[in-house]
């Protein structure tokens, strides 16, 4: 079953975040059993050329390739979609107007306003007609909820046509409330509960980025009803394991 259909059915999917722009990272993480991988263009050094290469490697491993773009902006969304992405995660969607912009930049007219070009997504020209059908029916648009203004406008965002789901960004959400990184405090948790209640009311997938690579934290979110879950980041999986094992060695042997 494709990611779009799973989102529509509110089925659990688990993905992760890619910030290291090398195909080996894709091959390693794809082999771990994720449903999707998101290439991060907002907080990494990955450029559009590397992004297209990573998209192709993710898809060659038969999983869904999403791109978290750096901004809710026409050109970057158009370029990653032309590069063949299965969908986008759009940061700082704080209103229904922001949500509509994101959908407009992904979809061709008459649904959206995206300019038409020929690239990898359209099989360099020979697959344009098929891509039009795919784009309308299967492209994924996820709104990132990471500001207190988005929390205030969550019902309108969820009702924006073309938004397939949302994902809460806990770090920026806490930052917008003046307490960056302190996302376990009651004030931030109350905001998250507001988003959760709205998703349940509108029967929309509830997403969250679990930053730490600890399965217990992910299981907590699954048990709490989250269905679109990003599990940690490539460099944290690598770094935490290396630090943990070396700490044990230094404590017990050296």
For the structure shown, list the relevant keywords.
254 residues, alpha/beta, TIM Barrel, 8-stranded parallel beta barrel
CATH topology: TIM Barrel
- Per DSSP, the total helix count is 12
Mean pLDDT: 96
Quantity of strands, as a count: 8
Name the structural class. Answer: alpha/beta
**C-alpha end-to-end distance:** 50 Å
CATH architecture: Alpha-Beta Barrel
**What composes the largest sheet?**
8 strands, parallel, barrel
Written as H for each helix and E for each strand, in order along the chain, the element string is: HEHEHEHEHHEHHEHHEHEH
* Principal-axes shape call: globular
Beta-strand content estimate? 15-25%
- Work out the count of structural domains: 1
CATH homologous superfamily? Phosphoenolpyruvate-binding domains
Look at the structure and give the CATH class. Alpha Beta
Which percent range fits the helix content?
40-55%
* Cross-sheet strand order for the largest sheet: 1-2-3-4-5-6-7-8
What can you see in these coordinates?
The chain has 254 residues and is an alpha/beta fold. The protein has a single domain (3-252), classed as TIM Barrel, CATH 3.20.20. The chain is built from twelve helices and eight strands. The chain has helices spanning 3-8, 23-30, 48-60, 74-82, 96-106, 128-138, 148-152, 154-158, 170-176, 186-202, 215-223, 234-252, and strands spanning 13-18, 36-40, 64-68, 87-90, 140-145, 165-168, 206-210, 228-233. The protein is globular, with a radius of gyration of 18 Å. The protein starts with a helix and ends with a helix.
């Amino acid at each position: 079953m494709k990611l779009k259909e799973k989102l529509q059915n509110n089925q659990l999917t688990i993905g992760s975040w890619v910030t290291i722009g090398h195909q080996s990272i894709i091959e390693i993480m794809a082999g771990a059993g994720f449903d999707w991988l998101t290439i991060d263009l907002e907080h990494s050094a990955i450029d559009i050329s590397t992004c297209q290469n990573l998209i192709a490697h993710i898809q060659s491993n038969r999983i869904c390739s999403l791109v978290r773009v750096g901004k809710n902006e026409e050109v970057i969304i158009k370029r990653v979609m032309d590069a063949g992405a299965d969908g986008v995660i759009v940061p700082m969607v704080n209103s229904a107007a922001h949500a509509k912009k994101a959908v407009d930049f992904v979809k061709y007219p008459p649904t959206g306003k995206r300019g038409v070009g020929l690239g990898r997504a359209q099989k360099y020209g020979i697959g344009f007609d098929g891509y039009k059908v795919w784009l309308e029916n299967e492209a994924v648009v996820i709104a990132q909820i990471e500001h207190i203004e988005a929390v205030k406008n969550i019902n309108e965002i969820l009702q924006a046509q073309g938004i397939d789901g949302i994902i809460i960004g806990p770090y920026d959400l806490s930052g917008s409330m003046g307490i960056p990184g302190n996302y376990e405090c009651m004030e931030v948790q109350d905001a998250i509960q507001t988003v959760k209640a709205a998703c349940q009311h509108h029967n929309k997938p509830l997403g969250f980025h679990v930053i730490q690579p600890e399965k217990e934290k992910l299981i907590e979110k699954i048990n709490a009803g989250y269905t679109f879950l990003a599990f940690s980041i490539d460099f944290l999986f690598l770094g935490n394991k290396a630090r943990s094992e070396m700490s044990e060695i230094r404590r017990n042997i050296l």
